[in-house]
C-alpha cells in the first residue's frame, strides 16, 4: 500500500489530520471540541510541510464521514470537500466507528472491537468489527444509533472477549454493563485520522473513491439534514 493519502477528521471531540506517504505517517491530533474550525487547516498545512508535499501531489483525500457530532461531521466534510475540489482529488469516506476499531488494534492489539460513541439524547452510535487476515475490518453489527437498553435486549451472547472503544461506554456504563457479551475496556475514546488513513489505503486499492459531489456524511439519525452541494440530486 503506497498511495499518498491525506485524512482529516472532526466528527467527535478529537481533531486530527494524518498523511501517509512512502510508508511513513505524519500525524497531528488534539482533543479540542470547540476549536475544530481553527485547528484543522493549520494541521493540514503542518503535515504537508513536514512531508514536503502539496495537496496536488496527493492521490486521494480521506475524511471521517461519521457518525458523530452533527456539527463536527459537517465541519470535517465541508473542509475536506473544499480541499479536494481545489486540488482535483478523489475522496474516501471512512467510518469513525471502524477507525476506532483500527485504533484499538494499533494501540492494544484488539482484533474484535465493540465501538460506542455517546450520541447524546440517551443513545449511542454502535458498531462491532472483526479484523481480517489482510488487515481490513469486517462489520459484524451494522452501524446504528440506538438506546443502550434496547441494544442490551437485542444483542446476542457469544464467546468472544470484545475490546471496547469510544465515549459511550463511560457515558452509559450502567446500561452497557448489562450487555450479554464479554467486554474489555480499551484506551481509544475517539477516532483518529491516522487510523482513517490506514483504512483508506484499502479502499483506494479497491477503487472505492468518490467525487467531491458524491461525498456525503453519515449521521445515522433521520432527523438531521445535510445541505447538498449545487448540482446534487
From TrEMBL:
GO molecular function, one term: transferase activity
One of the record's GO cellular component terms: cytosol
Subcellular location: Cytoplasm
Keyword tRNA processing attributed: yes
Assigned keywords, A-Z: Cytoplasm, Transferase, tRNA processing
Residue ranges of every copy of the Gcp-like domain listed in the record: 30-227
Pfam families, per the entry: TsaD (PF00814)
Source taxon at top rank: Bacteria
Main location per the UniProt record: cytoplasm
Database matches in InterPro entries: ATPase_NBD, Gcp-like_dom, T6A_TsaB
UniProt record, GO biological process: tRNA threonylcarbamoyladenosine modification
Record-linked CDD domains: ASKHA_NBD_TsaB
Family: Belongs to the KAE1 / TsaD family. TsaB subfamily.
Protein name: tRNA threonylcarbamoyladenosine biosynthesis protein TsaB
Lineage: Bacteria, Pseudomonadati, Pseudomonadota, Gammaproteobacteria, Vibrionales
